[in-house]
Amino acid sequence: MQGVVAAFLVTLGISQLAATGLQLRGASLAGGKRWLGSLLGLGLLILGGVILPDSFVVLLWVPICGLLAVVVLLLGGSFVWPPPHPNRIFDANHPVHGTCRRVEIADGDDQIPGYWLMPPGGSRAAVCLVHGAGDTKTSFKWRLIRALLAEGLAVLTIDLPGHGDYRHRLLAYPEVLTTVPAALRFLRVQPGIQRVGVVGISLGGGIALRSLAERTAAEPDLAEALVILETPIRLNFSKALFYREMWNTYYGSPVLNLLREMSVKQVWDMWHQGGYRTRHSTSSLFTLLDPLASIKQLNRLPILLVYSRRDRVAPPEHAQAMYRAAPQATLIETKKASHVVLTLIPTVNCQIASWLKEQLAAT
Length: 363
What we know:
The protein is of the alpha/beta class and 363 residues long. It has twelve helices and eight strands. Strands 1-2-4-3-5-6-7-8 form an eight-stranded mixed sheet, sandwiched between helices. Helix 1 packs across helix 3 (62-80), helix 4 crosses helix 12 (346-359) and helix 6 (203-215) packs parallel to helix 9. The longest helix is centred in the first third of the chain and has 20 residues, at 2-21.
């Protein structure tokens, strides 16, 4: 038993030191306190070394104790000293923005829930974020919003029908095509805003494309720029696709650095806020929206296409088909992200924000 305890203390100490060095505050017993984490890790390591028996048998326990140490650190990061929740970016007094307020935007007889964030010093350009299927206006959006605010762009993030705070309204086609134009009209009348862009993520990209294509004749100036992230041209969902995407998310995608900002519990809670209400399957929604036909109608609109070569939901051949359909578009392909983590890649977010800043610069 002494050998087991010693092996556990040693592995826990080494793991704590590693978490402190990598600044993984979501997997630490000391939160973001680096000095405390270092002292605690060294203390555990020394204590384990002192009681470590002089036997090679103890090495057999190292793998099990190592796994247990990781579990303890993840629980500690979740319950002992959790990081500030990333969604605090939507607090009115958060330092990353000048102002943030909840808004309700008229959408026929309904109201679109959203958050309206203005960078410090104000802005003349605004971006509307349209999330994907089963997502919400806030879930895992903070990194992209930070990148946009850092480039001096105001941000409106909304819930689509059937999602989040707009869940009471069923997502139905073609009724959903009123939502994005309503949000863009809201931005158009905000004081100081002169130019407007749209960022559509997966299903949100399909809805944005079809909405703008339907309104391009009647309202050609709804948006000056459009970013489409990982929108498939069709979707044939299956369990095999789900498991391949899950594998690509956990193996090879840079998800470990999420623990610098979130605990496992926070990730779990945010992930399980999803789901949506609709009368269609997700596959049939993409068939109805027909992103490939929609993008062909927007041949005068600057478009940025952002895809990942590891994405099984919107694979590289979908990215190339969209690119061929929009000769004026710019295509960015990353090698690291799965479908569900693309907007968590800092370099991708910076590229998106930089491109939008360039396109929306007031002339």
